Amino acid sequence: MKAVIKSKKEIAKGILLIDFIVSRKISFIPGQYFFITLINPPYVDEGGSMRHFTIVNSPHEKGIISMATKMRESAFKKSLIAMPVGSEVKIDQIFGDFILPKSFLKLLIFVAGGIGITPFISMLRYLECEQENYNITLVYANENQESAAFLNELQELEKKNKNFKLILTFNNDLNWRGEKRIINDDFLKDYFPKFKSKIFFISGPPQMVDGVNKTLLNMGVKEERIKKENFFGY
After folding, report:
1. What are the residue boundaries of the FAD-binding FR-type domain, all occurrences included (predicted)?
2. What is the CATH number of the domain that holds 57?
3. What is the model's pLDDT at position 115?
4. Which of 20, 22, 183, 222 is the most exposed place for a label (fewest CB within 10 A)?
């Protein structure tokens, strides 16, 4: 389907949020991703003009679909940055099984690295709209506060909702007085002593996702209690 760029905004250092107006009704489940094809992009390379991105808005927001991405020097990203508001794109093929379980909403641990926060934003916005009875802890790892997308929104959600706990770790921020460790077995055992009863969702760069997954398995968490989503840079 055709879509039009409604707005573009840098929401954190190097992170671009784009809202699209869609031409017809679109259905998706929080955590899924969509394919976008640029029409007459100003920059072209061998990677082509189509990529997929996680949806960050809630299904309750009708008529739009939103994405957030790390800005890079690829032709696709340079084109996306350069294309003005009002530009047409093609959106289709919504996929993905990195979605909330139908139950166990009080056992969930989200682990996000960098731009891997995007599926969790869609999920949390959806749960807030639905007023679901959930209990979720989000571990959010970044280099520093400036590069942490949706940080203010998450901090506000924690303040107003006792069912949501936010654990931040910034490993390269001189102004941060909180947690700075990488997410390893000591980190997870400190925050989640009853970790074997939890369900873990891990989202972020492949190296981070693989590392946390292996750590959880070595700690004795069963494989079926771990869901993973890799974010590749392009």
Report:
1. 1-101
2. 2.40.30.10
3. 96
4. 222
